[in-house]
Amino acid sequence: MKGSRALLLVALTLFCICRLATGEECNEFFMDFLQTLLVGTPEELYEGPLGKYNVNEDAKAAMTELKSCIDGLQPMHKAELIKLLVHVLGSQDGA
């Protein structure tokens, strides 16, 4: 249950941020955020995609827990998520 609350908080945060941005900015932000979430550190999230936002301590705790869940995935599952991200980024470049 704790992990699902963290995921819900992260989803709500992303929704709020994306509502403030234009469509293209939102897509770019989301892809950068997702890439950093998959292969970066929580600190890289706050310095990179979330750098211009004031992220409170509860949201930081949720991000850290979500990152921990992602890092706990089996390597093949994480690899598949990264392949999906690469595919999506590649299809955006061609659009």
TrEMBL record:
Pfam families: Uteroglobin. It is found in: Secreted. The keyword Glycoprotein does not apply. InterPro entries: Secretoglobin (IPR016126), Secretoglobin_1C-like (IPR043215), Secretoglobin_sf (IPR035960). Keywords: Secreted, Signal. Coiled coil: none annotated. Residues 1-23 form the signal peptide. It comes from the Eukaryota. Gene3D superfamilies: Secretoglobin. GO terms for cellular component: extracellular region. Belongs to the secretoglobin family. This is Secretoglobin family 1C member 1. It comes from Colobus angolensis palliatus (Peters' Angolan colobus).
